[in-house]
Amino acid sequence: MQTVRFFLLLGTLIMLVACSSISPTAVGVTPGSPSAVPLPSSTPAPPTDTPQPADTLPPSPIPAPTFELRSLDIAPAVLETEWSVTSVAWSPDGRTLAGGSQAIVALWQMPEGTFLRNLWGHQGYIHGLAFSPDGKYLASGGMDDKVMVWYTATWNRAQTLSGHTNSLVRLAWSTDSTLLASLAYDNTLILWDVASGEQVWSLTDDRLMDFDWSPDGKTLALALFDSSIDLLDAASGAKLRTLAGHADRVDSISFSPDGSLLASRSLDNILILWDTSTWQPSLTLAFVEGPVFSMAWSPDGIILAGATLNHQAALLDLENRAIVTLPESGIQGLAWSPDGNWLAGGRSGGATLWDLSQKMP
Length: 361
Prior knowledge:
The protein is mainly beta. It has one helix and 29 strands.
């Protein structure tokens, strides 16, 4: 966790230097922006099987896959801000894109890319953003150690959750939009009751690197510094199982939208896709270089996007068996539009948008 904190702070300093040459705030889509995105349809994800009692599972032998290396020649659009955007999130209806920046959350109306407003309240950069599944709330977590919850109907603040003692890393909602999980650099994971603002439970572990919540709401998966993955019962925080398979610290983790796969990626560049029905690896391969701080699945579960601490982004296309690099550097944080047509990424001076409606080449 100390190493990742160093790289993240270094990346933020680099972004601040880059931003010093940016002209005053200019908001909107730059020329060459993709055409409008159709409104998404929402389909509930089927439940993930509940893990069995706690044990440690050794990895099964996995055949070495062959994935073609490709590059994507698409000129992205940019939604511009005065400062770097370090995190992004789409509303469930696809009509709003949020970008975490220096002390603000910037909001854009999509697909037009029209600037809506800034949300003020944090101090320092905002590294965690998450809309609730019902679309009623937006949660933000920043370098001021606080989690703020905003009503999306009015953009007034609903809650300020205080309990962490260091910068926030990641936020995730329960499927019923009543609970919020937060991870910070104090090595603590907290589950909050949003209505009351009270903690349901908390876990402090020096090995914590990342986490994700399963689509069925039953399981939290923890990426750990010691190269393992812990699965917790979301309701109680009790450990259900430990997955062993990586040889280096696990820096990023993400459930597929239907809950059938859990993607974990370690510092030695190895990505493992775990079959959640058996908790055995179904695929392992090398995926991007350097520490990964963000992974995001496309809504159809076919493409996994990853962004590294050296600010590069790539796509793992499972359907076409390809690893596709994106023609843009300086990327921080990734998020897909609900219809899967757009991929957004934070960057120096704004948010980058790739039109992926035609899928992979």
